[in-house]
Amino acid sequence: MRHYLEFERPIADLEAKIEELSALSQSGGANLDVELDALRQRTEVLRRETYSRLDPWQKTLVARHPERPHLVDYISGLIEDFVELRGDRKFGDDQAIVGGLGRFRGQSVVVMGHEKGHDTATRLKHNFGMARPEGYRKAVRLMEMAEQFGLPVLTFVDTAGAYPGIGAEERGQAEAIARSTEKGLTLRVPVIATVTGEGGSGGAIALAAANRVLILEHSIYSVISPEGAASILWHDGSRAKDAADQMKITAPDLLKMGIVDRIVEEPAGGAHSDPEVMIETLGNVLEKELQAMSFLSPDQLVEQRAQRFYDIGRKGLS
């Protein structure tokens, strides 16, 4: 059964009506093809209109939609011969970050990202995509291997933030995030990061210190969640919508400020409405981005990446 957000209720009502009439038509009760075609067209128009005018809070809800494609879906749809590599060689393995080797459209790559999980069991296994220090140290290990063998790195960002538990802090959460960010900034191979859902705080940027940072149309990228910002600013987490409106966390605002480099269009109704199309679309974009960087030397890659981050904020202010 599909999960509908509150603002999608009118769409849900129409789709329920379509299912009801389809069942009636298939049972031989009546020929309702004309009525069904009209309802489907009406639903498609309503879906496009609804998603063309989403406010920042609604985009936040879409970014968190449980049916959006996750890392495992992108790996399944884009990466051939994927071999997962586990562990940080210091403490253990953190399944909030999944990564390994594979082939992307014929090219060997290292791929990694946050995995939130799709159901209760996998969400617990992956800790809802909130990584511990060993997850970020695993990311560093994979980036070092990519550099050693001259392999491009593709990362997929989708996390509310790094895990804030006591154990994580005892094992050096802040240091691990900083080391992962540092390694991303200094890699001598192409790095492309894509924010596929929500990109929360340092836990996100640890995998997004890249030459090119892409973002899906209805994803968000922020230093803190709207709920967290509302709690700090107004001591009232229920004002998350107000915070989202002020934080400039949506793709167009991020592009204007130079925080992201490209917006990847989602299917009408969001990535969750047609995951296969979303995965194929992102794959085409990633292929073009990799081709564009194939002519850069290692020194040029490092220099371009550094300049990209130096320029953040200046683009929107000029």
UniProtKB/TrEMBL annotation:
Transmembrane segments: none annotated. Pathway: Lipid metabolism; malonyl-CoA biosynthesis; malonyl-CoA from acetyl-CoA: step 1/1. Residues 31-292 form the CoA carboxyltransferase C-terminal domain. InterPro entries: Acetyl_CoA_COase_a_su, ClpP/crotonase-like_dom_sf, COA_CT_C. Its EC number is 2.1.3.15. Pfam families: ACCA. Component of the acetyl coenzyme A carboxylase (ACC) complex. First, biotin carboxylase catalyzes the carboxylation of biotin on its carrier protein (BCCP) and then the CO(2) group is transferred by the carboxyltransferase to acetyl-CoA to form malonyl-CoA. HAMAP family: AcetylCoA_CT_alpha. Acetyl-CoA carboxylase is a heterohexamer composed of biotin carboxyl carrier protein (AccB), biotin carboxylase (AccC) and two subunits each of ACCase subunit alpha (AccA) and ACCase subunit beta (AccD). NCBIfam families: accA, AccA_sub, PRK05724.1. This is Acetyl-coenzyme A carboxylase carboxyl transferase subunit alpha. It comes from Asticcacaulis taihuensis.
